[in-house]
Specification:
Blueprint (H helix, E strand, L loop, with lengths): L2 H39 L8 H21 L7 H7 L3 H21 L7 H26 L1 H7 L3 H22 L6 H29 L10 H23 L8
Amino acid sequence: MSESALQGFDAQASHCKVLARWSALVSWGSVALIGYALWNWGATEVRGQIHAVVFLTMLGGFWVAVSRSVFPWFGLCYVTDVGEGRNPAALVGLSGATLAAAIIYAAGGLGEGPSYWNNVFSAGLGTAVFFVLWFVLELGGCVSVSIAEERDAASGTRFGAFTLAAGLILGRATAGDWHSESATLRDFIADGCPAGVLCLAAIPIEHLLRPSRARPFPSWLGCGFLPALMYLGFATAWVFHLGRWEGMPK
């Protein structure tokens, strides 16, 4: 084997290692985020209680793993696109989706309630709507094609920011003291509806900024970073507008 071929092989192996490490960092970071949130802001019987926090964090790790197993149904896969395809755009997008799933689960456990079932109901509601929004975006904007097939970094950045922004909004909508299923659903709709607005806005943005014959390589700054900043800025502004959730420790 020639020296240049060996160098190319080494470069590919190094690239794979970087992607694998980043993927592992996101996964473990998601679990750490769940544990940190429950330890500091969970219900009274959970907050600061090592056994309860460990149990709910382990459940959260399982929740994130199950959510990740659903991602391929929407056209993006850690194994195919990141592991085998060595696609950085897919890694960025899927990282945002993974963190979003962790945020929604963690937020479902924030606030007082009579049982762990309340946490599961709230997190399940937020996670279900998250995937509905992803489906609508995929149906209207074909975002997986831009990321998985075109390997467009700007599209991956936009999508990662969109999923993270949606996770922040939906997570905040699930946080708070438990009263009943109907009250939780009512508050979720009122506090989480901006995520739907964000999704409807993201569809024409995808059509406008995705790769095309006229622009096969969109600018990462103008077509990726700036829209991502807009998505995250919108979500952050809404979360700050809602302020403290009911039952938030002072």
